[in-house]
Write a structure and sequence with these properties.
Shape: globular
Largest sheet: 10 strands, mixed
Structural class: alpha/beta
Oligomer: single chain
Number of domains: 2
CATH class of the largest domain: Alpha Beta
Number of helices: 11
CATH superfamily of the largest domain: Bordetella uptake gene, domain 1
Helix content: 40-55%
CATH topology of the largest domain: D-Maltodextrin-Binding Protein, domain 2
Distance between the termini: 80 Å
Strand content: 15-25%
Order of helices and strands: HEHEHEHEHEHEHEHEEHHEH
Radius of gyration: 24 Å
């Protein structure tokens, strides 16, 4: 039987549309294969722990494997550049820490643009950064420490996990710019070495995280004198903030963020990942595991993280100019 021309055209159009609809549906499905989460640091640190926790929960929630890949090197730039250059399809993600906006500021040839080359997904968690002293230092608060340094120019040292890290730059601001005292910076290749040095008394002062300092402070091997965050830490409620210690114009804390390459689709990928990660951060077992690392869950919207990165970039840029810090 011959179909009327109008009916034939209608059916033909419908048949042609089905593959197109199917293609659109497939394009909008995410994820449909493994997703890489690149951590630009060695395994074992807070960012690595957060990435592995998120990978487990996202795998369970979305049905595809989220796989953590550690890509350390060049102060975190190696792994970060790999993500910046990846396809913006949601299958390569970055879990980064506070030095994310710092590398482009510190280096003569910026390895990446923290604002233009990435799509923010969420700020996952934060942790207080702290200043502590060896118990031999006769200071119980920041003002007493400054008095000790002023009375003994050039005789004390502060340890940090490396030149150009936020914990180093905090020292440049407090000691050189704010109080103009003579103290020596001793950079180490990591947090563990700077912690060991200060416990042993080889360095007088330690700039570190609540995760590394608080267990030692509770055992009496270090004395925590100030947190550099904007608020007191849940895990160190008796330790005052910089503002409470007389430095109201500067804050810094450890933050862990999730980013994707610039151009990653917002409604299909970014919004989905943001919703799943924020939901994950509210789970009791996740909160418990973060607490063991002295991390406080956050879970921000993508635009909130974008604003935070912009403000952090401006803050560190100003400090690096004032302190004339350069990293080759």
């Amino acid at each position: 039987m011959k179909l009327p021309r109008r009916n034939f055209l209608h059916l033909a159009a419908g048949a042609a549309a089905l593959p197109a609809v199917s293609r659109i549906a497939r394009a909008q499905a995410y994820p449909i294969r493994n997703v890489r989460i690149i951590v630009p640091y060695t395994a074992g640190g807070p960012s690595d722990a957060i990435a592995r926790l998120l990978a487990q929960k996202l795998t369970e929630a979305l049905g595809e494997h989220f796989i953590v890949e550690n890509r350390p090197g060049a102060g975190g730039s190696t792994g970060t550049v790999a993500v910046a250059n990846a396809a913006p399809d949601g299958y390569t993600l970055l879990v980064a820490a506070p030095d994310f906006p710092l590398q482009p500021i510190l280096k003569a040839k910026p390895p990446y643009d923290a604002v233009k080359q990435f799509t923010p997904i969420t700020l996952t968690a934060s942790m207080a950064e702290m200043i502590a002293v060896n118990p031999s230092v006769p200071a119980k608060n920041l003002q007493e420490l400054i008095a000790v340094l002023r009375a003994n120019p050039g005789r004390h040292q502060y340890a940090s996990p490396g030149v150009g890290t936020p914990l180093h730059l905090i020292g440049e601001f407090i000691y050189k710019i704010k109080y103009k005292v003579d103290v020596i910076h001793v950079p180490f290749p990591g947090a563990a070495q700077s912690l060991t040095s200060t416990i042993a008394g080889h360095t007088s002062i330690l700039h570190g995280s609540a995760f590394s300092i608080m267990p030692q402070a509770k055992d009496g091997r270090l004395r925590a004198i100030v947190v550099t965050s904007g608020k007191r830490s849940t895990f160190a409620p008796d330790v005052p903030t910089l503002a409470e210690a007389g430095v109201p114009d500067f804050t810094s804390d450890y933050i862990s963020i999730v980013m994707a390459p610039a151009g990653t689709p917002k409604p299909i990928v970014v919004d989905l990942l943001n919703a799943e990660i924020v939901k994950t951060l509210k789970l009791p077992d996740v909160k418990e595991r973060l607490a063991a690392l002295r991390l406080e869950p956050v879970g921000s919207a993508p635009d909130e993280l974008a604003a935070r990165i912009k403000s952090e970039t401006e803050k560190w840029s100003k400090l690096v100019r004032e302190a004339n810090i350069k990293v080759e």
